[in-house]
Amino acid sequence: MEKNKIKKGFILSVLFLGPLIFYIFLSLGIYNHANLPILTEKVENIKGDVSFKDHFSVVSFLGSDFDKNKGRLFNLNEVIYKRYRKSLYFQSVLICPKGSEPEVESLKKKLRTYTDIQNWKFVFMDANEIKAVFNSFDSPYTIHPNLSSEYTFIIDRELRLRGRKDDEDTDNGRLYGYNMNSVNDLKNKMKKDIEIIYYQLKKSLEKEKRRKRKI
Length: 215
Description:
The chain has a single domain (38-207), classed as Glutaredoxin (3-Layer(aba) Sandwich). 48% of the residues lie in helices and 17% in strands. It contains five helices and seven strands, in the order H-E-E-H-E-H-E-H-E-E-E-H. Strands 1, 2, 3, 4, 5, 6 and 7 form a seven-stranded mixed beta sheet that branches. Residues 18-33 have low confidence and may be disordered.
């Protein structure tokens, strides 16, 4: 009888404490990943109707080789854009060289066949302007001669480039951009990192609401 009581007590303890311990570990995990590192403090803003300021921007450099970029944009659309296009402050900025307007219009028509392009923001700049914006990210990547890059970047509302300092696939752990050719990169890295940004935003908005209630 005594053994049965001990056994029952042990089982009840496991049933009660198990979820509690799991919650504690989960909370610690969220806390440890609740801040997406700032890798570049101040990037150059873009001019005109579209701005990085006050948005969470996913920034891509299309260049002039649109055939090569179709696959990249499809990956970005399916993994990132479709999920976040209606999220607060979100926009996907596509930087294109001046003179490529007809090709971009053709690209837009194709995009419209499988997605809502309302938050695709196409920005046209000359070569020097594009290079200046790209270089301001202070990343280890180089822009291609056709002004394109396979990497897409996260710029926050304060014009800061976000990324990772503990990435397992880079020599120094720093991940400045996400390779659009890799669905795995977009799904297992960029998507998770954007989730962290929105987790931070949610906590910030909740804190602000509590502050206003006390006033």
